[in-house]
Design a protein that fits this description.
The protein has eleven helices and 19 strands. Strands 9, 10, 11, 12, 13, 14, 15, 18 and 19 form a nine-stranded antiparallel β-sheet that branches. A four-stranded parallel β-sheet has the order 3-2-1-4, with helices on both faces. A hairpin with a 5-residue loop joins strand 9 and strand 10. The termini are far apart. Bound molecules: adenosine-5'-diphosphate and magnesium ion.
């Protein structure tokens, strides 16, 4: 076991890294962050911020020399960086599961090869791949295989001609073409798996998206659209995926439910936006669980003590027409069972995740109603 006051390494410095730093600090650890952004949210609060590229090997040598173990908050860290660090210190998760989750073709092939349910797809890397497309792949979504997030690098396509046009627009980058499902709803399972194989799942969240970006997560039985059987099935699939990947750390599996059937959408080899409610509603949150898995501690109890509904705060909220101004946080602070989290990002851009809030309540319906009312009150439109 790695115990305090050891120093832990974090690759990536966004809000997920920032919450990891907070959790680690609470537990008596120090944290070094490596991230190329000078104002990185995690770098601001870590003991040290290595402001450099992920493939700066001289910096990685110094990083490895000072850290007892290293983890990541960003699936696009090069697998070569994780492999390199693993020569010196424990790296959790390993490079192999990160490499599966960071490239959509690898991810889909993993699902197919292991019999996990997923939407029909075809990997597209050249003109050859358009031959013999199954008819039922349309209407489809063309997604770039790497570096897509929050719906970026995706195009809805209704036929071959549109698909080829979108592929050209993505400049011939490797893509996945997948069937666009009619969604009943979306859910996610956030879980932690220890180095000894112990697994704990957090309560399943129902996720509502707006323009491809997570908007509201509902971890409140009775207010969520997900029924108990579907939740159990999703938990079972997520745990089997974590086993198959031999995953160590916190991870998330996103699911679609379409015509009452369950499909895996994608996996994230890190804590997840839909697990932010665990900060305020669970005995152990997803970031503490990441610290525990990294350090070889037993996992904490992941139970929720209340119903919770989380709402994302995007940069759009900072704009009143053309005018840039801070939202009126007093509106949210007036609600005593609402927890506001802001990530310390220096500039708001439309679509950028700037913060979130979570409403905690004993009653699921009340939590949802209050969260949606607060969402409107702070100025988020339909
Ligand atoms: P990201 O990496 O941006 O999260 P996703 O593949 O999860 O990309 O897509 C973002 C959202 O777009 C999904 O949560 C879902 O709402 C919608 N979406 C993506 N793929 C499909 C699909 N095959 N069928 C229906 N909706 C989809
Ligand atoms: Mg997604």
């Amino acid at each position: 076991m790695i115990l305090p006051p050891a120093t832990l390494g974090m690759l990536g410095g966004g809000q997920l890294g920032r919450f990891f730093v907070s959790a680690a600090h609470e537990m008596g650890y120090q944290v070094w962050v490596l991230d190329p952004d000078n104002n990185s949210p995690a770098g601001q609060i870590a003991e040290r911020h290595f402001c450099t590229a992920y493939d700066d090997f001289a910096a990685l040598d110094e990083f490895a020399a000072g850290c007892a173990a290293v983890t990541t908050e960003f699936e696009n860290v090069p697998a070569a960086t994780l492999d390199y660090l693993a020569k010196f210190i424990p790296v959790r998760p390993h490079a192999a599961p990160v490499a599966v989750c960071q490239q959509r073709v690898n991810e889909k092939n993993f699902l197919r090869d292991n019999g996990f349910p997923h939407a029909n797809y075809r990997a597209i890397s050249s003109a050859e791949d358009w031959r013999d497309l199954p008819d039922d792949i349309f209407p489809g979504i063309l997604k770039v295989a790497r570096f897509g997030y929050d719906g970026k690098g995706q195009a809805v396509v209704h036929n071959l001609a549109e698909a080829q046009q979108a592929f050209a627009q993505f400049k011939g980058e490797v893509c996945v073409l997948e069937r666009r499902l009619t969604l009943d709803y979306e859910i996610s399972v956030v879980l932690a798996r220890g180095a000894n194989g112990e697994v704990r799942t957090f309560p399943v969240a129902e996720n509502r998206h707006h323009r491809g970006i997570l908007d509201v997560s509902i971890a409140a039985d009775g207010a969520s659209l997900a029924d108990a059987d579907m939740v159990r099935a999703a938990e079972d699939v997520a745990c089997r995926i974590a086993e198959k990947l031999d995953y160590t750390g916190t991870m998330a599996v996103e699911f679609f439910v379409s015509n009452a059937a369950l499909y895996v959408n994608e996996m994230a080899p890190r804590p997840h936006n839909s697990g932010h409610y665990t900060l305020d509603a669970c005995l152990t949150n997803q970031f503490e669980q990441q610290v525990r898995a990294l350090c070889g501690l037993p996992l904490g109890d992941a139970r929720a003590h209340s119903a919770a509904v989380m709402v994302n705060l995007l940069g759009d909220l900072w704009y009143e027409g053309e005018r840039y101004r801070e939202p009126d946080w007093r509106v949210l602070h007036a609600i005593p069972n609402l927890k506001l989290h802001l990530y310390g990002k220096h500039h708001a851009r439309p679509g950028r995740k700037m913060g979130h809030f979570t409403v905690i309540d004993a009653d699921a319906q009340r939590a949802l109603a209050l969260a949606l009312a607060a969402r409107t009150a702070i100025g988020i439109g339909a």
